Amino acid sequence: MTTTTEPPMRFDLAxxxxxxxxxxxxxxxxxxxxxxxxxANPSACEVLGFTLEELLPLKAPDMSRRSHEYRREIGRxxxxxxxxxxxxxxxxxxxxxxxxxxxxxxxxxxxxxxxRDVIMVQFRDIASEELIKRxxxxxxxxxxxxxxxxxxGVAVLRADGGIEYISDAGRKLLGVRPGQHPPKNFAxxxxxxxxxxxxxLLTLALPDAISFPIRYQLLQKNGAVRWHQATCRYIEIENxxxxxxxxxxxxxxxVEAEEARRRDQTALEYLARHNAMGEMATAIAHELSxxxxxxxxxxxxSILRIENNAALREHADGIAWGLHNAGRQVDHAAAxxxxxxxxxxxxxxxxxxxxxxxxVGEVRYFIELKAAEAGVAVTIAPGSLALPVSCxxxxxxxxxxxxxxxxxxxxxxxxxxxxxxxxxxxxxxQTALLKVCDQGGGLExxxxxxxxxxxxxxxxxxxxxxLALCKNIVARHRGDIWAQPAQPRGTCFCxxxxxxxxxx
Length: 504
Hints:
44% of the residues lie in helices and 24% in strands. It is of the alpha+beta class. It has four domains: 13-131, Beta-Lactamase (2-Layer Sandwich); 151-250, PAS domain (Beta-Lactamase), CATH 3.30.450.20; 256-344, Signal transduction histidine kinase, dimerisation/phosphotransfer (DHp) domain (Helix Hairpins, Orthogonal Bundle); 352-503, Histidine kinase-like ATPase, C-terminal domain (Heat Shock Protein 90). The strands form four sheets. The chain has a five-stranded antiparallel β-sheet with strand order 2-1-5-4-3. It has a five-stranded antiparallel β-sheet with strand order 7-6-10-9-8, sandwiched between helices. A five-stranded mixed β-sheet has the order 12-14-15-17-16. Helix 9 (252-308) packs antiparallel against helix 11 (317-344), helix 12 (356-374) runs parallel beside helix 13 and helix 13 (393-411) packs antiparallel against helix 15 (465-476). It is rod-shaped, with a radius of gyration of 48 Å.
């Protein structure tokens, strides 16, 4: 048994017209061979403003915008390509009977009917869509222009910190120069502690309305370390973006100002404590001077009685020796108290012209006392020439003491034969140069640059305040302070002060 395949049934032109008659889509039928208009449905006639009888004899120039891209040859080619390929789409600007131009999306489709092949052209007005597109482009251009100089960056991040989107302002904040590719992962640019906090936040898929503030430290592509303040919330834009929206701006100056305020506050507290210590030392020196004087009188009286009494003198040699030694210790204690009083109480609190070597001489006793306790040998070379400087000698004396005490503390870690420091004064051009050199372990090059920044210390228990105060004091006196390697080993802490010219 054999089967025959029936050829596909074809509609005739009349049936096809009846099907297209009631459609709201605008349809025009063209002859596949001649491209002439055969028919148009009521929707097309209404949009174009022609009756069917008026429409039939029209050609492309009669019903299209008078423009080069809508000439007849282009229209015929478009229809012919539909015959060859079965379907062709183009944007075509029709012109209505009243002259109105109708920008349309036109689709030409080859349809085989029983009588002939025709080209069915469906078109719809897209002028409003084009208007919306132009408006969107205009708004996009305006937004880009407005955002060009914005200091706030926008980024959309994945849960692993990867970047889905980043704005131009955001690229700038990351240190990305024009032409460079932005980093693939935002979190990898953050410091360790900041990265952990940011990644924890990116794991939370919160509703759009909830946002969280975050501050993080970031290393830019150019190597600069910056601080950002940001708000972060989760978003899901249909068929577009999904992730955490980050609005961020640079707050490095604010963070540094806060750090500076904290350093200043700590320095003030530090100075206040030292001021209190000075007041206590003054009070102690005042109170102890009287009992020491009384002890001295009692000792001298006892010695006189022994010397004037022959009976006592025969058996009191040991007692007299002890009393004489006790008297020397009293003199020593009195000398210490006198030094404290002179240094703390009687020094001026305003700038005066004084020899830097003289200041070294005034603090020498305290340096040698501290060194003796630590078993450190001190060599002081004040120099042969006077070095007149204008300064508050209390403050410059404090700088010398601080540098010397640091050197003594450094040397206390070494064996006794190696414990040596040297303090010297000399002229260096138009400045007076003071050096405090130890023979310790030295400093790393990176540490030398940060020693005077405040809150940095190479010592385990150090807080870095002392050297920062030294820097501030020297800078206040128009000088400079630094650290350099000593020979054959160790470190030299140096500072210079400008010499007073008319006293040189």
